[in-house]
Amino acid sequence: MAVYLDCAATTPPEPRVLEEVIHYLGVEFGNAGSRTHAYGARARRAVEHARDQVAAVVSATRGEVVFTSGATESNNLALLGLAEHGLASGRTHLVATQIEHSAVLEPLQALVRRGFHLTLAPCTPGGWVAPEAVWDAMRDDTLLVSVMQVNNETGVRQPLAEIARRLGDHPAYFHVDAAQGFGKELEPLRNPRIDLISVSGHKLYAPKGVGALIARRRAGRRPPLAPLMHGGGQELGLRPGTLPVALIAGLGKAAELALAEAPRWAEQCAAYKRRLLAALEPLGAAVNGSPEHTVPHLLNVSLPGLTAEEVIEALEEVAAISSGAACAAQSQTCSHVLSAMGLRDERIEGGVRFSWCHLTPDVDWRRLADGIERSRRQTAAPLSAR
Fold first, then answer.
1. Is residue 302 a contact partner of residue 352, using CB atoms and an 8 Å limit?
2. Domain count across the chain
3. pLDDT tens readout for residues 4-38
4. Catalytic residue status for 357
5. DSSP state of 94
6. Nearest-10 crossing angle of helices 71-80, 102-112
7. Which residue from 13, 15, 379, 68 is spatially nearest to 207, judged by alpha carbons?
8. Sheet holding 65-68, edge to edge
9. CATH code (residue 246)
10. Candidates 269, 327, 334, 357; catalytic one
11. What tens digit of pLDDT does each residue of 224-273 get?
């Protein structure tokens, strides 16, 4: 069976997380909203404990964590939830980057259709957005700045600390889509100037279907978010509906493990990356994204003479990889991230993403290299010889 190397799309569940989820599915199955018996009380305690566990990763407080279905919902709540305040205050300018995930870009476009103005800061050839480019895009009426923590296609870290420093006392809210970095790159998200952080459970060994929005208080006040749905008042009135206790407990456990073990996991991932690069470099692989700025668990490369589809097919029985963002794979469109980096068409068309975690077994590296070489020979052969 092929080794799974698409952890940027979703991670395998951590066994200790899975154990927690099963416990709250089969044993402690109470509704956290039930206030008349012990089952509900225990479920409520589990939710609040998970809230503490998630908050601890970014040095937030329990009251700043809103549970959602995942980072996409969190992004929508953070961005669209500020619309009412923006219109009422006359602050209708938004700043983001050209390399954001569609889960950020599409809500921003929805705001543009409602009369907001959007500026997208350009990307450097190395795959990050220069802090000065973000600052140059700012205006007096800027409501929001949204910059991802780690790019989902290239693994390039974005300079959050410097962007936060430049924002300083500007009233604009600073939102970070942390789907690829929460629990893996700890320090950047602890910056108190970051007002809103979107978290995805299934990128951190927790189940699919759970995430969080961390809404930090600034000067004692929460960001003025308005709910997108109504009908229950849960989660500070921002996200109605019965809480999925088992999924939330799983996310909490994953956050707890990450806080304790992230450095060790990063070392394991960095060693894995070195082995992968050693297998790919003799094949002429070109790394997309500045290597010194990339996280240890993700690599985007182009292999000369092969499209992404040809590489994926060549490795079908060796390694499960992707050509970029999993949710955009069905569109078969050119990567907007690699395009924003100014790469040549052949580099963009050949870009493939390898991503792994501390649970990933080693690949047969010789077999991986042989598969790519064989595909390259077949692609180069005249039609009559195939």
1. yes
2. 2
3. 999 999 999 999 999 999 999 999 999 998 999 99
4. no
5. E
6. 30
7. 13
8. 65-68, 211-215, 196-200, 173-177, 142-146, 93-97, 117-121
9. 3.40.640.10
10. 327
11. 999 999 988 889 889 999 999 999 999 999 999 999 999 999 999 999 99
